[in-house]
Write a structure and sequence with these properties.
Helices cover 66% and strands 1% of the residues. It is mainly alpha-helical. Helix 2 crosses helix 3 and helix 8 packs antiparallel against helix 9. The longest helix has 32 residues. The mean pLDDT is 97.
């Protein structure tokens, strides 16, 4: 019987706590970018999702994502309510930590993924519909995709596609869902006719810093043991974030003549997104290239979006959809068995087939997330309505949905 290693267990539990702080941090990151009248409602999305998905994961989400396989597509309900998920290790997932430690670590990934989508519909979604949407999306999109990629006998895992900490599972799925949400919900009242500038950029920079901090648990924690692989993942995570922050800053300097601090913060997040799938498979120099690419590619898509009629309020697709796609494909380019003997070599190490596997995984996740998210939103629009009323949007969701202002007028 596998034995619990106290050092590995401590690292996984600390990492779970680090990933938890990322969701409130995301609330600050997004909350600073919206208008003053929507700050509290935007932060509330992230905080409430911590509560919703923490319960959903224990009741049925974990079983669907990691439970005994059904056809490579979904987990069974054998672990409903954590039945059979105890304090001894499960050798299929983490041989040296209690099964519940692995479960709660994965819970934090399940929490932040739907929270990322909320930036796309910030300032205009009904709170009641938001709650139902999040529960349906987590169950119908996140849990199956997590099973494909990480579940024992999941079809993407059997294919050999690599995703160390969630490039496809977290960022592609949520980024594509964000694009769908922006398209289905339509533009905010006054979009491109009136100013919609961020009301508190210090909040956003604070949120980005806390996201960066928590991301070490996200990526290095995915080693599921304290040791060399966790160390390597930690180093490349920091390196890619820094490189992307700088490349986004220089892109804004070139295109608009000023080095944007919002751009530095956004670039750091884009770099963190892009390194996530590769973090357990690449070394420091590829991490620089992945980070620089993330800063450039995500900046260009965000810039294009800003001149379009697509109102992805906080550019979730540009950062997470594009950054996650680039990172997943870059894993197929730069992965090396010298970094992780349990991984694979990528194209530049002589294995072009790895890039093909990455393309299949990314493409399928794109299609699945797009289709299911579209269906969920259309059903909810027909039954509950997606948007607040126009006058409620003008007043702001803080007052119209919660009856509380973010800031006292006194």
């Amino acid at each position: 019987m596998p034995e619990v290693n106290s050092g590995d267990t401590a690292w996984v539990l600390i990492s779970a706590a680090l990933v938890l702080i990322m969701t409130p941090a995301l609330g600050f990151f997004y909350g600073g970018m919206v208008r003053r009248k929507n700050a509290l409602g935007t932060i509330a999305h992230s905080f409430v999702i911590v509560c919703l998905i923490s319960v959903q994961w224990v009741l049925w989400g974990y079983s669907l994502a990691f439970g005994p396989d059904i056809g490579g597509i979904i987990g069974s309900l054998d672990w409903l309510g954590l039945n059979g998920v105890g304090l001894t290790p499960n050798p299929d997932y983490a041989k040296t930590v209690p099964h519940q430690a692995f479960m709660i670590f994965q819970a934090m990934f399940a929490v932040i993924t739907p929270a990322l989508i909320t930036g796309a519909f910030a300032e205009r979604m009904k709170f009641s519909t938001f709650i139902v949407f999040i529960l349906l999306w987590a169950t119908l999109v996140y849990d199956p995709v997590a099973h494909w990629v990480w579940g024992v006998d999941g079809w993407v895992r059997r294919l050999g596609a690599l995703d160390f900490a969630g490039g496809t599972v977290v960022h592609v799925s949520s980024g594509v869902a964000a694009l769908v949400a922006a398209l289905v919900m339509g533009k905010r009242v006054g979009y491109r006719r009136e100013a919609m500038d961020p009301h508190n950029l210090p909040f956003t920079v604070l949120g980005a810093g806390l996201l960066w901090f928590g991301w070490f648990g996200f990526n290095a924690g995915s080693a599921l043991a304290s040791g060399g692989l966790a160390t390597s993942a930690f180093v490349v995570t920091n390196t890619a974030a820094a490189a992307a922050a700088l490349s986004w800053m220089f892109m804004s300097w070139i295109f608009v003549g000023k080095p944007s601090i919002l751009g530095v913060a956004s670039g750091a997040v884009a770099g963190l997104v892009a390194i996530t799938p590769a973090s357990g498979y690449v070394g420091p120099l590829p991490a620089v290239l992945i980070g620089v690419g993330a800063g450039v590619f995500c900046y260009l898509v965000v810039r294009w979006r800003g001149h379009s009629q697509v109102d992805d309020s906080l550019d979730v697709f540009g950062v997470h959809g594009v950054g996650g796609t680039w990172g997943a494909l870059a894993t197929g380019l730069f992965a090396s068995l010298a970094i992780n003997p349990d991984g694979a070599n990528g194209l530049f190490s002589g294995n072009p087939g790895q890039l093909v596997s990455q393309l299949i995984a990314v493409g399928t996740t794109w299609i699945y997330s797009f289709a299911v998210t579209f269906a969920i939103l259309k059903v909810l629009d027909a039954t509950m309505g997606l948007r607040v009323k126009a006058d409620e949007e003008e007043a702001g969701v803080d007052l119209s949905q919660h009856g509380e202002p973010a800031y006292s007028e006194a």
